[in-house]
Specification:
This protein is of the alpha/beta class and 171 residues long. The chain has helices at residues 11-15, 29-40, 59-62, 67-70, 85-88, 110-130; strands spanning 20-23, 44-49, 71-75, 93-96, 137-140. The longest helix has 21 residues, at 110-130.
């Protein structure tokens, strides 16, 4: 197992032919884990972030095995139409992770948080549509924000699939 992975690649991950992926939100914890697994499996990754010239939030990605050969960073902004075009152009798979997540959101700002997330998905999917000749699939991830009561978040609580049905997440 590669030393930087906590869990070894699965048989399915190891059996896939090298492909070109776009992963949005490269500076997030989830994106970092996805990018690490993709690089370990031999894939090439186009990763988006707000500022690829700011090395501090992405230095751990640049240090990953295979990053110097197969990781390319792109500037993108969830609220900017066409912002993801260059990162998505020619890729086979898109994994959309980027979103604004805050665990404590004042009631009067919740709609802004939701509107930003929705606009980000729309902008990514618009870029996919413009590059539809190459894109085989799109995966949109979620976060704890989708199942937790953002105003009542408990740091030591472990969320699971039952929380999807709790109903406390509806606005």
């Amino acid at each position: 197992m590669s030393r930087h992975l906590r869990v070894a690649l699965t048989e399915v991950e190891n059996s896939q032919k090298p492909s070109l992926f776009c992963v949005t939100g490269a500076t997030s914890f989830i994106s970092g884990a996805i990018i690490s697994r993709l690089l370990t499996a031999g894939h090439t990754v186009h990763a988006t972030c707000r500022d690829p010239d700011n090395v501090d939030p992405i230095s751990h990605l640049l240090a990953l095995p295979g990053a110097s050969e197969r990781l390319k960073l792109f500037k993108a902004d969830l609220l900017q139409p066409d912002s993801f075009d260059s990162a998505i152009y020619g890729v086979e798979y898109v994994i959309h992770v980027a979103s604004i997540v805050q665990m404590v959101v004042p009631a009067n700002e919740r709609q802004l948080l939701i509107d930003t997330a929705v606009k980000g998905v729309e902008n990514v999917l618009s870029s996919v549509t413009r590059s539809s000749w190459s894109v085989k699939s799109v995966t949109i991830t979620s976060s704890v924000a989708a199942v937790s009561d953002l105003g009542q978040h408990k740091a030591d609580y472990v969320y699971n699939e039952d929380d999807w049905y709790a109903g406390n997440w509806a606005y």
